[in-house]
Specification:
Blueprint lengths: L15 E7 L4 E7 L4 E9 L7 E6 L8 E4 L5 H14 L9 E8 L10 E2 L2 H9 L8 H14 L5 E5 L9 H4 L5 H6 L9 H14 L8 E7 L3 E7 L2 E5 L21 H9 L4 H10 L2 H6 L4 H9 L3 H25 L4 E5 H6 L1 H8 L11 H5 L6 E2 L8 E4 L4 H13 L12
Parallel strand pairs: 1-6, 6-8, 9-12, 12-14
Antiparallel strand pairs: 1-2, 2-3, 3-4, 4-5, 7-8, 9-10, 10-11, 13-14
Helix pairs in contact: 1-3, 6-15, 10-11, 11-13
Length: about 425
């Protein structure tokens, strides 16, 4: 198959990018106009393959645009993407539009080969498939989405944007595990990191908030959602991140344990008779906050704490303790920290988490202003007092916009000026 080139990609004036995030049983999508970087429509297809499949589509342009929902069986990802295309077409935004410049795909694992976005051809797809053993939960779904979109629009550039790419700048001493080198190399065992599009976007916006360029600042980014990760970003380049070979390592998460002694696995095999698959399920799906207290929603945990629930309080303390450890460690790695930045669902919305994570770190130059921290806003903002040596900020993440920006930067040359992500 011939790979579409930049010049071939679409007619001049094609500024739209469709962003696809394909999960094992869901497809999230957004259509953006890159001439002004606005969203035209957003949607979600969930429970693919079940009788109770559901599509929620929200057009964001046009008079009287309203959220629409349909339920009923959606057999597979091809049917899901076709259903989404129908909804877009109903708004005059169909996939056959000459204004569609490209489709950008979130791909979780790009290994060491993919350090930046790439136009997908057969060889790229084969390499993504070769990475399935190190991303068995994510890459297969991403591949399905790519294949489906290529079948629907074989003439259109399809771009892979990798979660791991931002972290490929880590030095070898940060990326390597201290295990036998030959074994590690043979099986691609090293620290890759994830949530890279979020860490890239947020670290850049944090620099902008400080009135400086990314090259001038050192930032610790805390992406706290159901999945959670931290990164140390020096001069715009990632030098350390908390997730490793898989998204299991690092912070306490909604259902994932984060850091544990590796020997826990062997211990459970010997004394509990658990299989590798059972331990995998335990650490990925039955651990973290849900394993500690039965809830992975921080709002519910805080409600339970207010009612005197000891299990919820302990889960919160464990969660925050791990955050503090990483803030301290990454302060040492960076040497000089200009900002600690909270993002994603918990990071953006939980004032108690932000306050507790910084409490007691005054010697590191960190403090939170209670009034500023209590403010709810969709805008990037400082929540530290003026006297604090290190800024503490909340920066809403926008992974879809970052994917669209990177996609359009790759295929949108010669279309005239477009507002950049950091403007």
């Amino acid at each position: 198959m011939t790979t579409p080139t930049t010049e071939d990609s679409a007619a001049a004036g094609a500024y739209r990018v469709l962003v696809l995030n394909s999960g094992s049983s869901s497809v999230k999508y957004q259509l953006l106009d890159m001439s002004d970087r606005t969203r035209l429509a957003v949607g979600l297809v969930e429970r693919i393959g079940e009788k109770t499949s559901r599509l929620v589509h929200t057009p964001l342009v046009g008079v009287g645009a309203e959220r629409r929902e349909r339920t009923g069986p959606i057999a597979d990802h091809e049917a899901a993407l076709k259903a989404a295309a129908e909804e877009l077409a109903a708004d005059g935004l169909g996939l056959d539009s000459p204004q569609l410049a490209a489709i950008g795909h979130r791909v979780v694992h790009g290994g060491l080969r993919f350090t930046e976005p790439v136009v997908i051809d057969d060889e790229v797809l084969k390499e993504i498939e070769r990475l399935v053993p190190v991303a068995p939960l994510h890459n297969p779904a991403n591949i399905t989405g790519i294949r489906t979109a290529r079948a629907l629009r074989p003439d259109l550039p399809q771009v892979a944007v990798f979660d791991t790419a931002f972290h490929t700048t880590m030095p070898e001493y940060a990326a390597r595990y201290a295990i036998d080198t030959e074994t590690a190399d043979a099986h691609r065992i090293r620290r890759y990191g994830f949530h890279g599009t979020s860490h890239a976007y947020v670290s850049r916006k944090a620099a902008e908030l400080l009135g400086r360029t990314p090259e001038e600042v050192n930032v610790i980014v805390l992406h706290l959602g159901n999945g959670a990760s931290a990164s140390a970003v020096a001069g715009g380049r990632c030098v350390e991140t908390s997730m490793g070979l898989t998204p299991l390592e690092g912070l306490v998460m909604g259902t994932r344990s984060g850091d544990v002694d590796p020997a826990v696995t062997f211990h459970l095999m010997r004394v509990a008779g658990m299989s590798a698959d059972e331990i995998d399920a335990l650490l990925n799906k039955k651990s973290g906050l849900v394993g500690l207290c039965g809830d992975n929603d921080m709002r519910e945990i805080r409600r339970r704490i207010d009612e005197g629930d000891a299990r919820a309080a302990l889960a919160f303390d464990i969660y925050v303790h791990r955050l503090k450890k990483y803030i301290g460690a990454y302060s040492a790695v960076l040497g000089r920290v200009d900002a600690v930045v909270f993002t994603a669902g918990v990071g953006e919305n939980s004032a108690p988490v932000r306050e507790a994570a910084v409490a007691g770190l005054e010697e590191l130059g960190l403090a939170v202003d209670a009034d500023l921290n209590a403010v709810r806003s969709d805008e990037p903002r400082l929540i530290s007092p003026n006297y604090a040596r290190v800024a503490v900020a909340v920066v809403p993440t926008d992974e879809e916009l970052e994917i669209a920006d990177q996609t359009f930067a790759l295929v949108g040359r010669d279309r005239g000026p477009v507002v950049r992500a950091d403007n």
